[in-house]
Design brief:
The protein is of the alpha+beta class. Helices cover 17% and strands 28% of the residues. The protein has helices at 13-17, 35-43, 96-103, 153-160, 168-180, 184-190, and strands at residues 45-53, 58-63, 68-72, 80-86, 89-93, 112-114, 122-129, 142-145, 195-203, 210-213, 222-227, 231-237, 257-264. Strands 2, 4, 5, 8, 9, 10 and 12 form a seven-stranded antiparallel β-sheet that branches. The protein has a six-stranded antiparallel β-sheet with strand order 1-13-3-11-7-6. Helix 5 crosses helix 6. The longest helix is centred in the middle third of the chain and has 13 residues, at 168-180. The chain is globular. The termini are far apart. The model has no long low-confidence stretch (mean pLDDT 95). It binds zinc ion. Zinc ion binds at residues 81, 150-151, 167-168, 238-240, 247. Zinc ion binds next to loops.
């Protein structure tokens, strides 16, 4: 029990609790998602590349700015952990925390995947989500979360006391090391908190703990993105499989995932421009002398 009766409630406790919340980051000033911008571009797509991600492993893939990519169901229900980097500078990478703060705990069509500070710009836009119908279930669960960080061997060692080598963190590390020809220890530093594709998660109502439940993903389902900048991606087929029981072990049944890269035949969407990095001056209040 986190909240032990070690402090006495003040006489105005009820009034303090009753204060209405305000949204931390009202997002009405963000660039508006205009589906029609992508409609023409999506009407005629050429499949450039298809990458199969084997179970309990990860693969990298490249998507030029102005192209689309889809992560699809293949042979069975499977959750994927996604990392994204600027293909030209992997110091710029997906910032799941700020994406969560701006768009909420789970993402879907119209949401942007933002990059880390000091870059802070949309790296990709979600342009189609076949699981968009799911919404919020009776447990407060939703699909495609940006809260779950990624399964990793360090947390597993703390909780279980043994080594497991095929957590998403390790899968992503091996894939990035191979792609960039980096030592594992160096590649590991660039691996970051993920977008949990197809994963169904939330926070329990009583203890507010992170929960997972069997993914609703079925044959024909996919999540589609538009690359706002040149992207290097890595996708891990999580050892949790559909994440209905356990992860970070060999116990769950796992399946491959498919990543497809598409080029719009008509070229970039009319009126679209790759976003610039943040316009903040970067002086942090220090005045020039
Ligand atoms: Zn995982």
């Amino acid at each position: 029990m986190k909240f032990r009766p070690e402090s006495t409630a003040p006489s105005d406790a009820a009034a303090r609790r009753a204060v209405k919340p305000v949204i931390c980051y009202p997002n009405e000033t963000l660039p508006v998602f205009d589906p029609s911008l992508y409609t023409d571009a999506k009407s005629d797509l050429t499949l450039v590349e298809s990458i199969i991600v084997p179970p309990r492993d990860a693969k990298t893939f490249s998507v030029p700015a102005g192209h689309f990519f889809r992560i699809s169901y293949l042979d069975g229900p499977q959750v994927g952990d996604l990392n994204l980097w600027n293909a030209n500078d992997i110091n710029e990478r997906f910032f799941s925390g700020k994406t969560r703060a701006l768009h909420g705990t789970h993402v879907s069509t119209g949401d942007r995947l933002w990059s880390n500070l000091p870059h802070m710009r949309p790296m990709a836009t979600i342009t189609h989500d076949t699981l968009n119908w799911y919404g919020w279930d009776e447990y407060g669960g939703g699909v495609h979360d940006v809260i779950g960080t990624r399964c990793d061997p360090y947390t597993h060692a703390v909780l279980q006391g043994d080594d497991y080598h095929y957590c998403c963190h390790s899968n992503l590390t091996r894939a990035l090391a191979a792609e960039k020809n980096l030592p594992l220890k160096e590649a590991e530093i660039y691996v970051h908190d993920v977008l949990n594709v197809f994963m169904c998660t939330g926070f329990t109502k009583d203890t507010h703990q992170y929960f997972m439940k069997t993914s609703p993903v079925r044959e024909g389902d996919y999540l589609e993105f538009f690359a706002e900048i040149d992207l290097l991606g890595a996708l891990s087929a999580c050892p949790g499989g559909d994440c209905g029981s356990s992860h970070s072990s060999e116990n769950a049944k796992c399946y491959p995932l498919n990543v497809e890269i598409f080029k719009p035949k008509a070229g970039e969407p009319a009126g679209w421009k790759s976003p610039e990095k943040s316009g903040y001056s970067g002086t942090h209040g220090v005045r020039k002398k």
